[in-house]
Amino acid sequence: MKTIVFIALLYPSILFCNGQVSKDIELVTKVIMDFQNDFNDGGFKNAYSYTTTDWEHINPVGGISKGRENVLNEVRAVHQSFLKGVTMKMETIEIRFIAPSVSVADVIHLIDDFTTPDGIKHVNERQIKTYIVVKREDKWLLTHDHNTAIVQ
Fold first, then answer.
1. Which of 65, 71, 64 is nearest to 50 (CA)?
2. Considering the entire predicted model, what is its pTM?
């Protein structure tokens, strides 16, 4: 009998959480799409609206930038040089909530062809990118991202 009462009390919570997660999935996806749009534009002009001040970025070769201003300096510099005009398109996305206010998204992006400063040509490249998006003051914000080329 106690089990039935417990389940009856728990059931509305399960319904509420599922509804909340559905809305949150949309909001987390929007943050990632905002990032992708800024990547494609190259200027990252909207980053202040969807990132935290302590945003960390790990680039595909393992360099790390900490803090929004440092990250923006890095990504804007590469988008003014070898990534100028390069765009990416989301192929797949998987979002998992670690806590009610923390999500991890694994996203595969298709990247336009580009050549790095060391002369390596990247053609038909797919990258796996991990985004950590947190909810702060009722808003989902990007706090960490890390991307790696998928080796075929």
1. 71
2. 0.85
Q: Is 3 helix (H, G, I), strand (E, B) or coil?
A: helix
Beta-carbon contacts of residue 94 (< 8 Å; ≥ 6 apart): 105, 106, 107
28: CATH: 3.10.450.50
What tens digit of pLDDT does each residue of 50-63 get? 999 999 999 998 99
Range of the structural domain that residue 72 is part of: 2-149
Contact 114, 83 (CB under 8 A): yes
CB atoms within 10 A of CB 66: 13
Between the alpha carbon of residue 5 and those of residues 8, 9, 18, 80, 150, the distances in Å are 5, 6, 21, 62, 49
